[in-house]
Amino acid sequence: MDLTLTIDSRPLDFELDDVIAGLLAVRLNVPPGEDTRAAIGRYLGEVGGPWILDENHMRKRVLRRLILDIADPALVVRYLMTERPK
After folding, report:
1. pLDDT value of residue 83
2. Which among 10, 25, 78, 80 could bridge 36 via Cys, Cβ 3.0 to 4.6 Å?
3. Contact (CB, 8 A) for 4 and 11
4. For residue range 11-57, what is the model confidence (pLDDT) as tens digits?
5. Would you state the pLDDT for residue 84?
6. Pairwise CA distance, residues 66 & 48, whole Å
């Protein structure tokens, strides 16, 4: 999933694997079958701030936050048990 995050009014292009996006959607309680792009983009833009240094640093910062958000075994089980549209 390709996203453009907005952090402190600055755009940041970011790419997420579909499984990671699905796990984060479960964490954010986005209903199955709904487009998750807006919810994930808004969330990562908010938690990624404030903008510090360059784009590379910001991508790493967002990625670290993402790992912390989805590193929960219960979340993985919930994701696997959720029916997703095919």
Report:
1. 66
2. 25
3. yes
4. 989 889 888 888 888 888 888 777 888 888 888 888 887 888 888 88
5. 59
6. 9
Give the residue carrying structure tokens 């790992």. Answer: 67
Domain residue limits at 73 = 2-81
CA distance 33 to 31: 6
Among the listed residues 6, 18, 85, the one whose alpha carbon sits nearest the alpha carbon of residue 45: 6
Q: Is 4 helix (H, G, I), strand (E, B) or coil?
A: strand
59: closest CA among 27, 25, 10, 15? 15
Residues 55, 59, 65, 69, CA torsion sign: positive
- 35 inside domain: yes
Residue type, 45: G
- Is the bond into 31 cis (omega within 30 degrees of 0)? no
Whether 86 is covered by a domain: the verdict is no
